[in-house]
Design goal:
The chain has four helices and no strands. The chain is an all-alpha fold. It has one domain. 22% of the residues are buried.
Length: 104
């Protein structure tokens, strides 16, 4: 059960960071932070959940990391093409702004 929670956490936590990464200059400081901050969060979650650092867990978490980053960047590109509202690098703030605009 812990490996399922870990892989789900890795995927979900990487979506906003992939969104951020898609809106910055490649290999800039923000680009590198968008890739490496989730690594720290995943390590902390591993310690908290007691999953450990076995090789077998890497077979699940590394693909989820890559897929989460990819999904976040695709969400940014899709929203950039489909919406008239200017986007920022923060997925959460963009979603809140769209919701508040639709209520008016």
């Amino acid at each position: 059960m812990n490996i399922i929670l870990l892989t789900l956490f890795v995927f979900i936590i990487n979506i906003p960071f992939g969104y951020w990464r898609a809106n910055v200059i490649k290999f800039s400081l923000q680009f590198l932070l968008a890739i490496h901050i989730p690594v720290v969060l995943i390590i902390l979650f591993r310690f908290i959940s007691g999953t450990g650092f076995e090789i077998v867990t890497l077979l699940y978490t590394v693909p989820c990391f890559i897929i989460g980053q990819y999904a976040g960047s695709k969400i940014f590109l899709y929203r950039k093409l489909k919406e008239l509202i200017p986007l920022t690098s923060c997925l959460v703030m963009d979603l809140v702004r769209v919701k508040s605009n639709s209520e008016k």
